[in-house]
């Protein structure tokens, strides 16, 4: 408080004498002009002064309400009630949004705790692939938008079912379009009759010069098909096992007909949004195994299951040149029609899938080696699998995918993968189908390290097909940088890392596994996620990574 002086009694006082300046009566006010710079600010900081000032300010601003104000009409009462209800509803929605944001924030914090073990080693060891690759696993516990994901999955299922129906209709049209009257068997009887009547040269004449009367036409031929015969079929989806991205992403739909155990495979193509086409990839016929323990045996119903390999001779079919480079065409079954399988099993003698003793022993050998290496690979899966693939591609000078036994032993030693000599020899005897002392290095990696299931690989292929929209078989690193999305990464949401840091970490890890640092092939893209998949047990968590990154 500042003392307020009585200026009337200070006229004869000495200014230098401090005691003479003291007034006879003192009063306290808040608007003293003395020392307006410091003491005035001090007075404002007092709670009592602030309260008094607020009361005076509110009293001055208070509006006068007239006494004879009429009561509001019913119209305005209804409007006020509507306004009150609307405000309550808005506040309710606002509270719900706040609760959802708090829940989402808590989930992000929980997910980010998984990546906290990486922060301690990001100072100097951030450049190591073994530490950068697991950063991508932060997406596992957070789908990018569950409701959007469900709607998108339903739309994709409807589109896939429509594609399959188009192929089924095309197969039925192709097999039933040849009428009985135009069957080649009809001409065989006419040629025989002409030869028996001594008409030389007519049997070898062109078909347009031959004559066949109505009485010489058969009502039914041996090769004639009916819709009922073709209805007992098993539909399956398949893919080509190839390191060529364009061939590996071909959409193949096959059929196994139970009436004669024949097989046909069609390729579905889509041009733009509305134009589609389904063409035969493997012509209808009875085929036999070309590799493995069942080599030479015809395909039966029990040979079709998810993960099964179907082998064909490339020279027997009109295939693209990139596919014909390998003498054996291998198709992997990715899905089957379960309802049709159950029906065909119930109506046939094959009640269960047949596995001979040799196949069981082979699987035991693979499982044993994969079990020994699981702990080692789980810690550095991306670096081992991508490194093996890159190393083998550099050794493969002939570009046929086959390497010698010495090359594989050197690779295992280089990447510190210890496999006993006896187990290595067992694997080699299983994989060396042709006994040429050379094995496909893709099969060797899958036998020793393991392989993703077809459910995971379907999403990897879908992501690559989105990147490779021109179907060239390779994607530039610039396009990958443009399509990569790190907005939903837990470390980004928690403010512990930027989008550019997460993106650079991924691109550096992926680029290190590529032969050409400016582009990524399909096999390199698949090897990366093959290594990342080793450390993720749950399929849905692995799919969440691809959904968040690529928006599939």
Automatic annotation (TrEMBL):
Q: What is this protein called?
A: CAYP2 protein
InterPro entries per record? Ca-bind, CAYP2_PH, EF-hand-dom_pair, EF_Hand_1_Ca_BS, EF_hand_dom
Alphabetic keyword roster:
Calcium, Metal-binding, Repeat
Q: Does the keyword DNA repair apply?
A: no
Origin: domain of life: Eukaryota
Q: Which gene carries the instructions for this protein?
A: Caps2
Query: From which source organism is this entry?
Result: Eudromia elegans (Elegant crested-tinamou)
Compositionally skewed regions (Basic and acidic residues) per UniProt:
102-120
What GO molecular function annotations does the UniProt record carry, in alphabetical order? calcium ion binding
Q: Does the keyword Oxidoreductase apply?
A: no
Region Disordered: what ranges? 102-125
Q: Where is the EF-hand domain?
A: 383-418
Q: Which residues form the signal peptide?
A: none
